[in-house]
């Protein structure tokens, strides 16, 4: 991924960043309560993250018409934007889980 595409994706990702942080925090709270051992926690996490992504895509589609000319002029397709949303959210969620796992290891 080029630096230019990363900058454009962050510009696009900013409006729904708070929503994804909230969903990631809620999902990571289940890991704090149940621990990392139970398989049910991972299925719930996947379910909640999928719902969060659907709402993120819904929010983006609602505002897509007002910003579509900007993204088309930049040469970024809708599917590329959605793939970047999911990848950034997975990286963010993985970072949160890694920090939680390391913090639980010290106690």
Structural notes for this entry:
- By secondary structure, the protein is mostly helical.
- The protein has one domain.
- The termini are far apart.
- It is elongated.
- It contains five helices and no strands.
- It has helices at residues 3-13, 17-34, 39-62, 64-74, 78-106.
- Helix 2 (17-34) packs antiparallel against helix 3 (39-62) and helix 2 (17-34) runs parallel beside helix 5.
Mean pLDDT value? 78
Q: Structural class given helices, strands, pairing?
A: mainly alpha
Please give the alpha-carbon distance between the first and last residues.
Answer: 38 Å
Q: How much helix is in the residues?
A: over 70%
Could you give the count of β-strands? Answer: 0
Low-confidence stretches: none
Structure summarized in a few sentences:
The protein is mainly alpha-helical and 107 residues long.
């Amino acid at each position: 991924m080029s630096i230019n595409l990363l900058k454009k994706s962050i510009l696009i990702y900013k409006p729904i960043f708070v929503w994804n942080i909230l969903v990631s925090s809620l999902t990571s709270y289940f890991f704090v309560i149940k621990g990392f051992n139970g398989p049910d926690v991972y299925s719930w996490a996947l379910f909640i993250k999928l719902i969060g992504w659907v709402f993120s895509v819904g929010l983006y589609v609602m505002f897509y018409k007002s910003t579509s000319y900007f993204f088309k002029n930049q040469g970024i397709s809708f599917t590329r934007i959605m793939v970047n949303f999911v990848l950034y959210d997975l990286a963010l969620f993985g970072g949160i889980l890694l920090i939680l796992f390391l913090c639980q290891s010290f106690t």
